[in-house]
Amino acid sequence: MHRVLKVAVVGLLAVAPACYHATVDTGLKPSAQVVEKSFAAGWIFGLVPPSTVETASKCPHGAAKVETQLSFVNQLVAFLTLDIYTPMSIKVTCAEAGRASRSPTAPTIDVGANATAEQIRNAISRAAELSARDSVPVYVEF
Asked: Is the sign of the CA dihedral 30, 31, 32, 37 positive or negative?
């Protein structure tokens, strides 16, 4: 029995410092602007998630990366509160500007604001043919 207890304690000590970490990468180029919340309050084993991190005003071009983590300190606090309060760290890296810009020399087909369904279909068909022929993006404006 004494040996089983030792193995259990060693196993617990090996697993306890492990940290949960998840990263969502949007594919956008990251900027230097970072929004962090080190103790985002989750409740009841994380079943009630933390409130939304407001990044719209700080990241006008969107998010490049979102990371969530249960650090050792977060897990210690959760353990001490019997997982009623389960904090987590959230880090949002903002995206750089200019991701939606297009080349001024790129071909453009202007359909017009009051185009009919037939005119729109013809414009998209012409754009597809031009793109396939020249291997370039073609923009259709309405």
From this structure: negative
d(CA 70, CA 76): 10
Q: Is residue 74 packed enough to be buried (19+ CB in 10 Å), middle (13-18) or exposed (0-12)? A: buried
117 shares a domain with 65:
no
pTM, rounded to two decimals: 0.56
Which residue would you say has higher pLDDT here, 17 or 65?
A: 65
The residue range of the domain holding 136 is 108-141
| Domain-located, residue 47 | yes
Same-domain pairing of 25 and 83? yes
User: pLDDT exceeding 70 applies to what percent of the chain?
Assistant: 86
Asked if 30 and 58 touch (Cβ cutoff 8 Å), the reply is no
